[in-house]
Every structure is written in structure tokens, then in C-alpha cells.
């Protein structure tokens, strides 16, 4: 981790991505600050159980910061000497999903700028979506589309990108070829 500035860990639900990110943070040889993006819903017992499971896995010497909305500002405020573990992008995105397209574009640009200018090490966890059926309602499609855009843009600026599935982590930067947005996703056009 010492030579890596920005690491993206992505994958489906319950794949082991948070555990892999926590493992990387623990190997960073730096003080770790865990950024929890979840809003607290005390009346939701199942949600509280999930939060407690995350808390119990983390070492007691890790500091926790709650940043459900202004993630860029949280990143900018961190000293060079730490490893910042952000978990998760999907939860953060859900908190601001009601932003109109213009504001979302500014929010995304501000976040990317904060990540590229940060002096600390950053490990960020993000959920993969859209591997199945297109959501049948507009807000679901907005979440899926924005999450895909967010992961793709963070992946492009990351030093390492891991896909975690079924408990196994694959280093996509070492194994894959980045598809630039200028290349049509459906292949070359035929005459």
C-alpha cells in the first residue's frame, strides 16, 4: 500500500469488499481513519446490526468519521500521514441521489478533484450495480447510472482497482484493459 495513493475496491453485495479494503488499510502502516457514509437510523434494527458488524471488525485504534453527505470536504481535511478508508460510495450516493443532473455533475467533479489532490492514502469501497435487470423505476435507474459513472471515473484515477466477488479479490488494473469513454461500448460500427 505504501506506493499507492488511491485504491478502489468494488464488487457486489456481501462479496467481501469491505473486508478486503479493511485488510489493505491495515497493511498501510499508517493511522487509519474510517469514513462511514451511512446515515444513522436508530429505529431500523437490521441497519443497526449491519453497522455494528462493521464496527466490531475494525481495530479499536481506528478513528471513525461520519460523512453521509460532504465526502469531498472530509477528504480535503485529512493529513498526509493517514490512510483514509471510505465505506461506501453507494451509501453516500443514496444520501444525495435527489440532486438534479447539474448539481450531481458538480458534486462528482468536486469529489474527483478532492481524491486526486489528497495527500493522504485513500481506499474507497463502492458497490457494483447494473449486472442484472434494468430497474423498473426512475430513481433506481438514476442510482444505477450514477453509481456506474462514479465507479468508472474513480477507477480511471485510481492506482489500484480491485473487484471482489465470492470472497476473492482481483486486481483489475493488473488484469484488465481500461475502456475509454470514446470507444463505443458495443464495439466498432459496421458499414
Automatic annotation (TrEMBL):
InterPro entries: CobU/CobP, P-loop_NTPase. GTP binds at residues 11-18, 36-38, 87. GO terms for biological process: cobalamin biosynthetic process. It comes from the Bacteria. The active site is at residue 54. GO terms for molecular function: adenosylcobinamide kinase activity; ATP binding; cobinamide phosphate guanylyltransferase activity; GTP binding. Keywords: ATP-binding, Cobalamin biosynthesis, GTP-binding, Kinase, Nucleotide-binding, Transferase. It catalyses: adenosylcob(III)inamide phosphate + GTP + H(+) = adenosylcob(III)inamide-GDP + diphosphate; adenosylcob(III)inamide + GTP = adenosylcob(III)inamide phosphate + GDP + H(+); adenosylcob(III)inamide + ATP = adenosylcob(III)inamide phosphate + ADP + H(+). Pathway: Cofactor biosynthesis; adenosylcobalamin biosynthesis; adenosylcobalamin from cob(II)yrinate a,c-diamide: step 5/7; Cofactor biosynthesis; adenosylcobalamin biosynthesis; adenosylcobalamin from cob(II)yrinate a,c-diamide: step 6/7. Its EC number is 2.7.1.156, 2.7.7.62. It is an enzyme of class 2 (transferase). Catalyzes ATP-dependent phosphorylation of adenosylcobinamide and addition of GMP to adenosylcobinamide phosphate. Belongs to the CobU/CobP family. This is Adenosylcobinamide kinase. It comes from Acaryochloris marina (strain MBIC 11017). The gene is cobU.
